[in-house]
Write a structure and sequence with these properties.
The chain is mostly beta strands. It has ten helices and 41 strands. The strands form seven sheets. The chain has a nine-stranded antiparallel β-sheet with strand order 2-3-4-7-16-9-10-11-12, with no helix packed on it. Strands 1, 5, 6, 8, 13, 14, 15 and 19 form an eight-stranded antiparallel β-sheet that branches. A seven-stranded mixed β-sheet has the order 28-27-26-38-39-40-41, with helices on one face.
Length: 630
């Protein structure tokens, strides 16, 4: 009997001819499978999974054994209160797992995807960190199943992954037999027994990163974790490339699994409730996310006038709707409705937003930095900001603790920033904790290239930069900023980037208690001459979890007039930090507390307050253009 049939007939106990076939006890000498797991009550006990290949696995997060018409499977549930999804850990690292295939391989599984995601993993032994790309992963994205692999034949020094994107569209709640093979020359992806994609870009032996974890139900490497929401019946790995005929035969034997009617278990509800992003005088974006396919309708109207509607096509995941043709500085009222093809419906309460004001008009805004971790603090800080009813809010990076972890967005950042971002548009920048994650770019609707951009509001121009990228003379951002500043006619000019050029932090830039410190980050400090040349008024930063304001600075000195003020406003939620045991030459005001920075602008006058999370005014600043008073 073909060995693939021996280990895979157990996909459905209803189809198993014998008990031996349903739950093979051990690897047969003639078999070439190196790993196999059945996810049923015979093999899953609490958080332990006893693989049919003899390996001992461990479930992480919340999972449960569920039963359908043809047997049992492991349901991997979404993030709980701890913000972590569920998956099965096969090995802490590749080097701990014996006999991973190198010359040929087949990986196959019966899965049901309940919430597609950009980077999904069924069985993962992959490392995709910047240019370092090694291993392989059988997975899926928002639309279809995928297979990624890195080999010696395509190695560019750090490995290079090629991803196969299947043609079969994933329907949530449906079961699929997903199989990938590699024979040393060609990688192939099969869905329900049929070839879905193939490539010859990879050839030779599989390249592995020795420290990469191996997991079922997750796309995981050293700095990313994307967990599955769905069910998995089994998964098997072979050290040979099974033929197309064998794969088709195996699916036909068990095709009844694919015919199981999907259950209506996933509720139509907001994964991310609608929030506002990037307002101009004439437009604003509304962004939301849903776990199941639905059409989204945005209804809005001015204070006096007719209701208008914008429709987003039916899909699951993130919906971004841009409202155009608005009037400057005016309030509008809106609601968002999502409706599935089955007629299920979810709807927000009526909410409001305001467009950007024109030149010459007064306005206020709030600056917050580092809303990572400490959800209770983030909520208090956000509520204080909302209580002041600012025109907009800007966050100076580190919105979340780990940008690659989706639950940090869906279970931490977005819930705790409400109702502020339901009614006040958000203008964010990247910090180091975002890790340049695709979640940031998918959620935020900003001008290209999104990691830097500019906007105008009233008498001010804002220039948003990414301090995780080069900022020195000749760099992309330096050249862009010089061009933008040179053409700006704004009365006020503000720059926002995450890392502070000047900082009294005790140890972020060297241990100030024992030895030398650069007293700030040298990469963004290279922008200083531009700020001074073109009259930038304030540079807002985060990164250090304190409040700090410098004197006005010019030419490396503190000055009374016509200098650039640098403000670290990193008190949005991260654990508080402390200062140097001495006051640097630039240091004016320092407070280690969670806080917001509230700014009012009327013509040539600016008033600024740092308000801590107990609503106590730490200090206020009156600034008539270029001179600071406190």
């Amino acid at each position: 009997m073909n060995h693939l049939h021996i280990v895979l007939t157990s996909m459905s106990c209803a189809l198993a001819a014998t008990a031996a076939h349903a739950h093979p006890a051990a690897k047969h000498s003639e078999d070439r499978f190196v790993f196999g797991a059945e996810f049923d009550r015979d093999h899953v006990h609490t958080d332990a999974v006893h693989a049919v290949s003899g390996h001992h696995l461990r479930t992480i997060g919340t999972s449960t054994i569920t039963t359908d018409a043809l047997g049992e499977s492991l349901e991997l549930l979404g993030p709980g209160l701890d913000g972590q999804g569920a998956y099965v850990l096969v090995a802490e690292s590749v080097e701990q797992f014996d006999d991973l295939p190198t010359h040929e391989l087949t990986v196959t599984s019966w899965v049901r995807i309940d919430e597609p995601t950009r980077w999904g993993g069924i069985l993962s032994a992959v490392s995709d960190n910047g240019d370092r790309e090694k291993g392989w992963v059988l997975g899926y994205d928002h639309d279809s199943f995928t297979f990624g692999i890195s080999t010696t034949g395509a190695d560019d020094g750090d490995g290079a992954l090629t991803y196969l994107d299947g043609r079969t569209a994933i329907e949530t709640g449906h079961w699929y037999m997903v199989t990938a093979t590699f024979d040393g020359e060609t990688a192939r992806l099969y869905v329900n027994g049929k070839l879905d994609a193939e490539t010859t870009d990879q050839h030779g032996e599989v390249l592995y990163e020795q420290q990469t974890p191996i997991a079922v139900g997750a796309y995981i490497d050293s700095n990313e974790l994307h967990t599955m929401q769905g069910r998995i019946r089994n998964v098997y790995l072979f050290d040979e490339a099974i033929t197309s005929e064998q794969i088709t035969e195996e699916f036909e034997r068990n095709s009844v699994i694919a015919e199981i009617e999907p259950e209506s278990e996933i509720q139509l509800q907001w994964t991310v409730e609608p929030f506002l992003c990037y307002a101009t005088q004439r437009s604003i974006s509304v962004v939301c996310e849903l776990p199941v396919p639905a059409e989204v309708t945005l209804r809005y109207r001015p204070a006096v006038g007719d209701i208008r509607e914008i429709h987003s096509s039916e899909k699951s995941g993130i919906h971004t709707i841009r409202i155009e043709g608005l009037e400057p500085g005016e309030p509008y009222y809106y609601e968002v409705i999502a409706e599935s093809s089955e007629g299920k419906r979810v709807q927000t309460d009526p909410m409001s937003f305001q467009t950007a004001v024109e030149r010459g008009k007064a306005f206020t805004f709030v600056m917050i930095g580092d809303t990572q971790s400490n959800p209770d603090v983030v909520k208090r800080v956000s509520d204080i900001a909302w209580s002041h009813r600012p025109n907009f809010v800007s966050i100076a990076g580190d919105l979340v603790t780990t940008g690659t972890n989706k639950s940090h967005w869906t279970h931490h950042f977005f819930p705790n920033m409400r109702p502020l971002i339901n009614r006040v548009p958000l203008f964010p920048i990247l910090g180091n904790h975002e890790k340049n994650a695709r979640h940031y770019y998918e959620y935020m609707d900003l001008p290209d290239p999104e990691y830097y951009y500019s906007f105008s509001y009233g008498d001010a121009d804002y220039f948003m930069l990414d301090s995780e990228k080069p900022m020195g003379p000749g760099s992309e951002q330096y050249l862009w900023l010089e061009d933008k500043l040179a053409s700006s006619d704004a009365r006020w000019k503000f720059v926002v980037h995450h890392r502070p050029p000047y900082s009294s932090d005790e140890n972020d830039h060297g241990n100030s208690w024992l030895g030398p410190t650069t007293l700030g980050d040298l990469n963004p400090r290279q922008m200083g001459p531009l700020y001074e040349k073109y009259g930038v008024d304030i540079v807002f930063n985060g990164h250090v979890h304190v409040y700090e304001r410098t004197f006005p600075l010019r030419d490396g000195q503190a000055v009374e007039h016509n200098g650039v003020i640098y403000m670290t406003i990193g008190g949005g939620g991260g654990g508080l930090e402390d200062f140097t045991p001495f006051n640097p030459w630039f240091g004016s005001k320092k407070v280690s507390t969670h806080h917001i920075c509230y700014v009012e602008i009327v013509g040539g006058h600016l008033r600024m307050q740092a308000i801590d999370d107990q609503e106590i005014i730490c200090y206020s600043l009156s600034d008539s253009r270029k001179s600071a008073k406190c």
